[in-house]
């Protein structure tokens, strides 16, 4: 019994030591979560970025969602996306019943700068969705075409393979973490 009591006493002094250790251990853990956004290595030269509608079928909600998705990167960020007739950043649609993707982004670079990027949505998966949900897909792919990778935050750039950001959290537009990622890059 005395041994147990002594042990408790010792433990009574431990929290200070434990608290200090935790602070040290948690510091490197907390920093990345505050900077959850990632970059994939490329960016555009300059911050006025033109985009254009490329090939594909833009009928219905897929087309309605596109313009608002591109513009949703403009508020509170250092970039300004403007629609043009021809641009190196191009929105396209495709149809694949087998690739399992809602959308994708494909780009080319030179010296760390984009020379071109396609933001694509897969009509096979998304054409029947509500406009806000398709807008989330366009916005996500545009995010890749601005240089963002996936984030562990609940944001528009939350990793692929899940619809969680729009289905579970109602996120259709860039969030603080997404905007921080843009502003750290431009
Ligand atoms: Zn993605």
From TrEMBL:
One record GO biological process: proteolysis
Keyword Zinc attached: yes
For this UniProt entry, the molecular function terms from Gene Ontology, in alphabetical order, are: metalloendopeptidase activity; zinc ion binding
Q: What keywords would UniProt list here? A: Hydrolase, Metal-binding, Metalloprotease, Protease, Zinc
User: InterPro entries in the record, alphabetically?
Assistant: MetalloPept_cat_dom_sf (IPR024079), Pept_M10_metallopeptidase (IPR001818), TAT_signal (IPR006311)
Q: Which residues form the signal peptide?
A: none
Q: Name one GO cellular component term.
A: extracellular matrix
- Hydrolase as a keyword of this entry, yes or no, is yes
Provide the Peptidase M10 metallopeptidase domain boundaries: 106-186
Please state what the protein is called.
Matrixin family metalloprotease
**Native species of this protein?**
Miniimonas arenae
């Amino acid at each position: 019994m005395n041994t147990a009591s002594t042990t408790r006493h010792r433990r009574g002094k431990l929290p200070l030591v434990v608290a200090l250790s935790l602070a040290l251990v948690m510091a490197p853990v907390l920093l990345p979560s505050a900077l959850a956004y990632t970059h994939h290595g490329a960016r555009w030269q300059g911050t006025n970025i033109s985009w254009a509608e490329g090939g594909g079928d833009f009928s219905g909600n897929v087309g309605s969602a596109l313009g608002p998705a591109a513009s949703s990167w403009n508020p509170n960020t250092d970039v300004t996306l403007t629609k043009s007739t021809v641009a190196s950043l191009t929105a396209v649609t495709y149809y694949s019943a087998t690739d399992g993707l809602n959308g994708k982004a494909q780009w080319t670079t030179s010296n760390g700068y984009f020379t071109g990027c396609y933001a694509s949505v897969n009509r096979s998966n998304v054409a029947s969705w509500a406009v806000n949900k398709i807008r989330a897909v366009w916005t996500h792919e545009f995010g890749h075409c601005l240089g963002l990778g996936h984030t562990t935050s609940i944001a528009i750039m939350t990793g692929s393979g899940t619809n969680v950001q729009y289905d579970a959290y109602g996120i259709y537009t860039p969030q603080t973490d997404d905007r921080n990622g843009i502003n750290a890059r431009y």
